[in-house]
Amino acid sequence: MTNRFLRITFLLVGLGLLYPVLGSADTPKPVIHEPEGEGVKCVHPEEEMKRNHMNYILHQRDDTMYDGIRTEKHSLANCIDCHVQPGKDGKIASIETEEHFCKGCHEYAAVTIDCFECHADRPQKFINRGGKNNASLQQDLQTMLSAGTASGDQ
Q1: Where along the chain do its domains lie?
Q2: 98-135 pLDDT per residue, tens
Q3: Tell me: the pLDDT tens digits for 96-108?
Q4: Element of type H or E holding 131
Q5: DSSP codes, 52-110
Q6: Distances from the Cα of 20 to the Cαs of 9, 16, 26, in angstroms?
Q7: Given CB 3.0 to 4.6 Å as the disulfide criterion, which of 49, 74, 79, 121 pairs with 116?
Q8: Residues with Cβ within 8 Å of residue 5, at least 6 apart in sequence
Q9: Number of other CB atoms surrounding residue 85 within 10 Å
Q10: pTM of this structure
């Protein structure tokens, strides 16, 4: 019985001695690449966006997908257009890199970002589409859709 008591006592004392070393280490905060230019004027105050941005994005998604309502205020594309800008080297960070605006906080919070499975992770104006502009892409889409409609009528 005394042997067991001594083991428990040594264990508790040991943990007490190790606590200042192990327990005081702060988890490092995420590196946030602050927006520049237009990105500093957000649609809501910074603290509110940190706390509620996911709700705004999900609400916008539901309005768009289920009700066909498209607004720009909480659109993911507008967030990306403002918050993801070229770095000092002129390159645009993708979601796979540490420099992407969304990456640091989502990794810190252990939250999976599934937005970019469908959505662009960089501003549209910086995505190289093989020399085509949006007008020609829209024209190509219309041509393809009308060809599909015409072939479906036969």
Answers
A1: 37-122, 126-154
A2: 888 898 889 888 988 889 988 899 888 877 666 555 56
A3: 988 888 988 898 8
A4: none
A5: HHHHHHHHHHHHHHHH----STT-HHHHHHHH----TTSPPPPTTSTTSTTHHHHHHTT
A6: 18, 8, 12
A7: 121
A8: none
A9: 19
A10: 0.60
Q: How far is CA 86 from CA 115, 125, 132, in A?
A: 20, 11, 21
CA 19 to chain centre: 35
Task: Compute the distance between CA of residue 38 and CA of residue 116 in angstroms, rounded to an integer.
Answer: 22
- Asked if residues 99 and 93 have their Cβ atoms less than 8 Å apart, the reply is yes
**Structural contact between residues 63 and 71, judged by C-beta atoms closer than 8 angstroms:** yes
> Which of 113-133 are b and which e, b meaning 16 or more Cβ less than 10 Å from the residue's Cβ?
eebbeeebbbbeeeeeeeeee
